[in-house]
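ok so for the tutorial part 2 we go from a plain amino acid sequence to predicted structure tokens. step 1 is just haveing the sequence, like this:
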Amino acid sequence: MIKKMVVAAVVTASLAGGAVADDYRKNPFTLTYANAITENVVGKVNIHPVTYQLNGIKIVANVYTPANYDPAKKYPTIVIAHPNGGVKEQVAGLYAQRLAELDYITIVADAAYQGGSGGEPRNVDKPANRIEDIHGMADFISQYPGVDANRLGLLGICGGGGYSLKAAQTDKRFKAVATLSMFDSGLVRRNGYMDSQLDTIQQRLKQASDARAKEAAGGEVTYVGGDTKLTKEQIAKLPFELYRQGMEYYQYTHEHPNSSSKYTMSSLLDLMNFDAASNMDLINQPLLMMAGSKADSLYMTEKAFKVATGTTEKELFLIPDATHIETYWVPKYVDQAVNKLTQFYGKNL
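step 2 — the prediction. this is what the tokens look like for a chain of 349 residues:
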């Protein structure tokens, strides 16, 4: 969702025990996570880079197939939506690979206008696009050899979690819906993180309106944020743990050149009246919402979970002692999330 860093002491401690991230430069698939696939080997989990068209835009995605994959068989399949600013090679790829190790076919795609996918201007971040990305992944993977389209699950991570909730409200191809560290992009862009920008809502809407007018007149695209790498000292001064650890993750430990925290200012016109937790009663599928017990973003998961009144099967699973970003890569927390997902999808797919 944001980007990553290396506070020497933190990284030395937290990357111990086999958790060291892969350098995207050294991975043939540019994967950034620990123990990532480096080659396709017969009889093991394989990764398949694919492309497809979605509303005239080229989408790049990775499909992961289980060990001893047989296209003549039928496998339960999981669509995975990545965090804001993230790409398929980071946390979404990690969970895609881990679930493929448990005999699921998985797909993760870069959002339209972002990452390696097409679309201009770059880094447009509109909820309707992100939701359509999820529908589009379902369209593509349902036709993939070996996929059982009647056993299709959905996993959304961070911002992808908020958009997955919206996608599942209407798309009943998804038979089971899970989120990890859900981030309600509309709520945060409108009110600020933890309601820290309530006094500037109208000012920011005016800026967004002006930015759209400028674009419409053929002017330069205005962006919020940027890709300047922050120093350790600058990161330490950020006001929220999610942002501090996010900068560590995206700018240092799991860096990827296609990942960017910036987005077009005009996107705020669509973001600021979006609410991932609205119409939650439309979700009638089994629902699992996971978050770290120490995540400062937990309030968003709790809000959406509370109003998910349309399903008779729902569970809020807190990962003890984990923060938001730690659920992306810390082995003991990832293991707990994957184990819970195994139970959840095993029962409902």
